[in-house]
Amino acid sequence: MDFTPDPRYAHPSTPQCFIYLRLPVERHGHDPLHQRENTIDQALRTQGLGEVLGWGASLGEVSANGRRLAWLRVDISANTQASALLLLRQLLPTLQAPTGTEVHYQQDGQHLLDILDATGWLFAQSPQLHARNGPATI
């Protein structure tokens, strides 16, 4: 998957990187008013690192137990990827991001993700392959 900025839409003096978050959600989840996305946007803007482009619910792949996981997806445009990732890794646990939260990004042309587990972040993981023999979709 190519996350290279499209020069027709990117300002040439401001490099942009696309990052997206996937937060597992349960029915009637923790943040029904979407304050988490607002807080992420404010933190990125305050530090001049980027902004939240949008968010929404999505369904993931069917899990091993036959259930289909639901996710909250948050799309981010970052000016500086490394600094934005550092901010997100620090901020998400303080916003009660659940275990299984994923931060997706591209590094050296490779799609990677960081996963929040019970002990902290697992960095630079490769996306999991699914039954259709391809990586997880965005």
Could you please describe the fold and organization of this structure?
- This protein is 19% helix and 38% strand.
- It is of the alpha+beta class and 138 residues long.
- The radius of gyration is 15 Å and the shape is globular.
What does this entry show, briefly?
This protein has 138 residues and is α+β, with helices and mostly antiparallel strands.
pLDDT < 50 runs, ≥5 residues: none
**Terminal-residue CA separation:** 9 Å
Helical fraction = 10-25%
Average pLDDT level? 85
Largest sheet: 6 strands, antiparallel
Instruction: Write down how many β-strands occur, each being a DSSP E stretch of 2 or more residues.
Output: 6
What is the element string, with H for helices and E for strands? EHEEHEEE
Content of β-strand: 35-45%
Computed Rg: 15 Å
Spatial arrangement of strands, main beta sheet: 2-3-1-4-5-6
- Backbone structural class: alpha+beta
| Contiguous helical run count | 2
Report the principal-axis shape.
globular
Features:
six-stranded antiparallel β-sheet, 6 strands, globular, 138 residues, single chain, alpha+beta, 38% strand
Topology overview:
Layout: E1 17-24, H1 35-46, E2 50-62, E3 68-78, H2 81-94, E4 102-107, E5 110-117, E6 120-125
Antiparallel strand pairs: 1-3, 1-4, 2-3, 4-5, 5-6
